């Protein structure tokens, strides 16, 4: 039975909790299966372990085990291993008990540059890595040995996910194509384009499917990103498309219709039967939003400026969102007295739905 969102919100009123303000910028955020701690990928090759501290969080430790930014993290379902990747193409499998120690395995040049996303198969044996080099590599997790490699598109790829029951792999790219692959053979099974995710403007390709997720039963795929309106200083509305994974047909499309809203940057499944998303648009723009399982307008949202990642913690009924500080600085922004640009950082905002 579909969720009655109005009734659910009355029974589980959202409450903003304390925000963790810390000095580091985070690119991605993932929760350990125990939900007792989080791992954030940051700059200059760092991983930040963030420990629960009552209703708040604290950065418990930071280790430098990568070379570039760390945009992708995947915990193994057993909770003992974590795979991390960086913008220089390094892939590393570590024991969570010793993130700074000798890895279980690593590949300094797993991809020719930026590794954008990682996914682990439902049975925990296969890792998929997607790179800016237009390649997908499949790895045997126990040994770290490559099993298959294939070029999935003629343009940049952004997203991938394993089917939770069948084990097939789907990918999303810059031109709005969703493709399903057989990981045993590396062969494409089927492919379709969602054209609203892509625009050629000012000699630039902009947009792309930035997130792909299966619902837990595997029957629905959610593709998310941006419907771009201009290139250059890219503007576009947040875009979500629900697909029937069996019929390979579009079920619902939701367009925020505001060109300042920008990209959906991360998605998570709520065990009550709906989706959580975070977004990043023009400076200072971004939202945490809730959407029905099989599509429809957002039934609740809250400001979450320029968010990069989110995690849903079922045991404590909390969502944590990695955001960007207000007044974020860049070229042309005010300088300090020392004529330097202040560094940006990532506050961790959080909300609880009802009582834990």
If you had to describe this structure to a student in words, what would you say it looks like?
- By secondary structure, the chain is mainly beta.
- It folds into two domains: 24-115, Lipocalin, CATH 2.40.128.630; 152-318, Methylamine Dehydrogenase, Chain H, CATH 2.130.10.
- The chain is 2% helix and 51% strand.
- It has one helix spanning 5-11; strands at 14-16, 26-31, 37-42, 46-53, 56-64, 72-75, 81-85, 91-95, 105-107, 115-120, 126-131, 135-140, 146-151, 157-162, 169-173, 177-182, 187-193, 198-201, 204-207, 209-214, 220-230, 235-244, 249-255, 263-270, 274-280, 287-292, 300-303, 309-313, 318-322, 348-353.
- A four-stranded antiparallel sheet has the order 1-30-29-28, with no helix packed on it. A four-stranded antiparallel sheet has the order 2-3-4-5, with no helix packed on it.
- The two termini are 24 Å apart.
- WD repeats lie at residues 108-149.
- Residues 322-348 are annotated as: Disordered.
- Keywords: Repeat, WD repeat.
- This is Anaphase-promoting complex subunit 4-like WD40 domain-containing protein.
């Amino acid at each position: 039975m579909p969720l009655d969102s109005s009734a659910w919100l009355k029974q589980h009123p959202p409450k903003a909790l304390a925000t963790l303000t810390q000095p580091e910028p985070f690119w991605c955020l993932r929760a350990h299966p125990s939900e007792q701690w989080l791992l954030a990928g940051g700059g200059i090759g760092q991983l930040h372990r963030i420990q629960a501290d009552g209703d708040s969080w604290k950065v418990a430790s930071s280790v430098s085990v990568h070379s570039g930014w760390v945009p992708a993290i995947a915990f193994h379902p057993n909770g003992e291993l974590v795979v991390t990747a960086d913008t220089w193409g390094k892939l590393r499998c570590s024991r969570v008990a010793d993130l700074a120690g000798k890895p279980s395995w690593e590949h300094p040049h797993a991809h020719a540059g930026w590794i954008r996303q990682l996914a682990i198969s439902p049975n925990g044996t296969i890792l998929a890595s997607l790179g800016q080099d237009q390649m997908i590599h499949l790895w045997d997790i126990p040994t770290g040995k490559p099993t298959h490699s294939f070029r999935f598109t003629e343009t940049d790829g952004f997203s991938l996910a394993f089917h939770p029951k069948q084990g097939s792999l789907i990918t999303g790219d810059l031109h709005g194509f969703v493709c399903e692959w057989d990981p045993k053979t590396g062969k494409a099974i089927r492919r379709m384009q969602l054209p609203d995710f892509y625009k050629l403007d000012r000699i630039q390709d902009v947009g792309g499917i930035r997130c792909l997720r299966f619902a837990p039963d595997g029957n629905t795929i959610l593709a998310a990103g941006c419907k771009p309106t201009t290139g250059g200083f890219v503007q576009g509305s947040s875009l979500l498309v629900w697909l029937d994974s069996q019929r390979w047909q579009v079920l619902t499309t939701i367009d925020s219709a505001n060109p300042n809203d920008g990209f959906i940057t991360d998605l998570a499944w709520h065990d009550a039967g709906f989706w959580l998303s975070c977004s990043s648009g023009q400076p200072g723009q971004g939202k945490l939003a809730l959407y029905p399982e099989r599509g429809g307008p957002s039934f609740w949202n809250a400001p979450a400026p320029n968010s990069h990642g989110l995690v849903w913690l079922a045991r404590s009924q909390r969502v944590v969102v990695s955001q960007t500080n207000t007044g974020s600085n860049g070229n042309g922004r005010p300088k300090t007295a020392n004529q330097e640009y202040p560094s940006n950082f990532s506050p961790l905002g959080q909300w609880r739905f009802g009582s834990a």
